[in-house]
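Sorry to interrupt, but I need a hand with the structure work. It will help me judge whether the discrete encoding reads sensibly. Write everything out right here, beneath this request:
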Amino acid sequence: MRAGKLYLIPSFLNEPDPSLIPEQTKNIVNNLHIFMVEDARSARRFLRAIGYPHSFDTRATLYELNKHGAPDCDKMFALVKRGNSAGLISEAGCPCVADPGAELVAYAHRHRIEVVPLIGPSAVLLALMASGLNGQSFCFAGYLPIKEPERSRKIREIESAARNGTTQIFMETPYRAQKIFEELLRTLKPDTRLCVAANLTLPGQYVFTTTVAAWKNESTNLNKQYCMFLLG
């Protein structure tokens, strides 16, 4: 029997907006009955928003994947090997980017299961596209360290790489975005170019790139906003 496939399903970056998910992606997802998800509640909310037609009680099985791995990974892939395709749903944006899904995908490759990435929102690429910074050479650094002095050291490290021509991209949670922004203005060199991409795909999205020196003359409040930062 031919094995099923593992589909990588992008979800909303912020608030639910079904128009952000292409019809082809919706059609594939709506024919799946097995999912590996970060959080079952938010995954159900996403599936309902895109018009998922099946009952979560009788027709859909959701296995939870977290930073400690997937205890039901073997169970789910046993079903896939018997010909049932499955989907991996990220908490926000594209699977396996700043989330634990990569281990699941690596498992699929080890067992010769076809992995199919689907089209949908990607905060990393949307921010890079709108930044005006180098799109030929870039690096995604994920989240900065929470504690000092590791965080300041990391900021200087990625600034050095950015000034050598490789755009550096990193993200922050809404509750720390303003604090990180203020630290960037204190730590970075005045002529380093900094892009702030906030609330991507939301009606009030904001993307602006200028030098650190110029940012200091702006009145900017990023508190409780979903932010991507880019250095160039």
Notes: The two ends are 51 Å apart (CA to CA). Helices lie at 23-29, 40-49, 73-81, 101-110, 123-131, 150-163, 177-187, 212-215. The chain has two domains: 6-117, 123-231. The longest helix spans residues 150-163.
